[in-house]
Amino acid sequence: MLLVGAVDDVHAQNTREGDVTTFRVITPPDPNFIPMSVLRAKADEWMPGVDVELVMAPSGDPSAMRAMLYSRAADFALFSVLGGSRFVDAGISNLSLVGVHVWKGVHLLAQESVNSVRKLDAQRLIAVPAVMTPSHMVARYALHMQGVRADFVSGGGGPVLMAQLSRSESAPLGLVAPEPMVSIILQRQQRENWPVRYKVLMDSQAAASPQTGETPLGGLWVVEPYRVGSNKKAAQAFVDGFRRAVDYVGDPRHVDEVADIVSVAMKEVYGQNAPASVYRSMLKSGRLGLDFRDARAVEKVVVKELKRIYGVVVDEKVFRSVF
């Protein structure tokens, strides 16, 4: 398998190496990464003749992601349904949604002494990775539904964040974050014996959409329609393989294997050193909800939810298919 942090002129070409078609996939270090790392590990078995090249994405940096999508730095991308819809509306005409696979994975953590979200009203909270990302916006909406108006600031996701959370003098009363960061924080506070401890206080999706307990968060997008469209058989094999990977992640029988795969891939691609036990805990917790659903099948849900939660009107071009 191939890994890249930047795409050069050679990678940008529509190439075949032997009888293998390689698709480049932008994959951020969030819930989207989980099934894609499994697909990368299982590619030879699940989609012979098709390979995956992972392209690192800057987490929480919409401008950098916009540049990558505009320049068609990959064939596919995994990122938020909200972000992709905004990019299409802003004129990035090459994007189209293949399907939605992340329906739950953002949670509000609070110090253990906090027993109600109402205690967070008018408090300064941290948004991981940044404000105006889906993790922040869905949590903000859920809090507003309960009459809570918090002041959010961007928190990143690296050593600076961990240092802030682990010190009494700088620890916020609460924060919102996606998996696997939630599980990383919960395990690190135990292992390192932080003086301040956090707990999961609110499932942001369940609070924002109490009837279903889910919202459309992460999706699979076509970025380079010409190359995908001219390799339809391989592209369909890739999508089928990704769907299988999503199902595989959700099967309790594979928790240990998936945790090992994700731990190795996160270290290899993003330099994150979280042990497999973090991902094992995440997969067993029920905090992550993955289910691949075709874009056309969820079009009405996506349009309704993005309008209700984010105030975004989704352009119908989002749902056009190149297959």
UniProtKB/TrEMBL annotation:
<protein>
    <recommendedName>
        <fullName>ABC transporter substrate-binding protein</fullName>
    </recommendedName>
</protein>
